[in-house]
Amino acid sequence: MAHDNIDLSTLTRNELLVFEALKESDSPMKAYDVLDVLKSHGVRAPMTVYRALEGLEEKGIVHKLDALNAFVLCSHDRPHQVQSFLVCSECGMVQEISPELREAPQVEDKILGVVRATGFQMREARLEMKGICQKCTGKQSAHNTAAE
Amino acid sequence: MAHDNIDLSTLTRNELLVFEALKESDSPMKAYDVLDVLKSHGVRAPMTVYRALEGLEEKGIVHKLDALNAFVLCSHDRPHQVQSFLVCSECGMVQEISPELREAPQVEDKILGVVRATGFQMREARLEMKGICQKCTGKQSAHNTAAE
DNA sequence: TTTACTGGATTATGATATAACATTGATATA
DNA sequence: TATATCAATGTTATATCATAATCCAGTAAA
User: Fold this and answer.
1) How many residue pairs bridge chain A and chain B with CB atoms within 8 Å of each other?
2) What is the CATH topology of the domain spanning A2-133?
3) A interface toward B at CB cutoff 8 Å?
């Protein structure tokens, strides 16, 4: 679990609270869901949560999934320029593709190559892939309902 | 201009209005910006705009930029599974990377390869790259301010 | 003419996010 | 010690983005 490597001493109190909340969750959390959790710690205002999330993002500890307006802990050791997520339209599962995967660096390289060719200085990128995860694919072929 | 190839006859009245509004704009538009434009055509409610945008997205004519909550016309002829955008943090410029670029298909192939390996059935994907565009890079190196 | 369907209008509200300003507490330093 | 400073936090209000729910109008098929 990559989260064990994070230096928690650099986090502010609120950042730590948000970090813990995200760590407990097995799926991405909306800001207001985080707020609900933190209410038991005396946090009352959305601002508090958004500020902490922003700090965690800057530290590379949290990623925002723009397509879902939700936040997840980064599951990898080193900072990476390209974050890639699989999002299941069926069950909502979100999985960050590990940059350590054998082919993943090739994807990142290809992207960086294409982008450089355009004269663009990329700072970070997010790839959000929507589809049906392995689990739900099985279910779907059984009874052909639901989905989108 | 790829927009000339679109079969406008399949669009509803409101979809056509939204399409025209986006076509006039040289940058992505927020839904409420579109609404402002359409007010002169009697459109009053956000719902109308969002419905039309949804229709256009389904037809592959419009993409949503989740990171900006904004919408752009697709600038390409054929539907494509992976949409890639450069977003300048400095000036707000947004450019869709053409899937016809020499290396672009390789990126898409690499992505599809990695994803297939995970058993995920990808339906569509969006790659949003944030950074500094060529124009702004020049400005920046001159006086080293701003950004972020 | 009924029925069913698609698109559209309207009203209200929900969900997401930030602006602006006040307060606190720690640290530095005059 | 007094006080200046700064980062973090708290608080209030409001802006922005998006959808639910319901009704209506046109039209094409039975």
Assistant:
1) 122
2) Arc Repressor Mutant, subunit A (1.10.10)
3) 66-67, 84, 86, 88-89, 95, 97, 101, 103-104, 106-107, 110-111, 113-115, 117-134, 137, 148
Residue A72 beta carbon within 7 A of nucleic strand D: no
Alpha carbon A14 to chain centroid, angstroms: 19
Rounded to an integer, what distance in angstroms lies between the CA atom of residue A43 and that of residue A47? 10
pLDDT tens-digit readout, B83-102: 899 999 888 889 988 766 66
pLDDT digits over A42-82, tens only?
A: 999 999 999 999 999 999 999 999 999 999 998 777 667 88
Q: Which chain B residues are within 8 Å of A112, Cβ to Cβ?
A: none
D7 C1' closest Cα residue: A12
Residue keyed to tokens 């209410």 = A39
Tokens standing for residue B58: 């389904």
Yes or no: say if A87 and A65 are a contact pair by the CB < 8 Å rule.
yes
DSSP letter string, B69-80: TEEEE--SSS--
**Fold category of B2-135 in CATH:** Arc Repressor Mutant, subunit A (1.10.10)
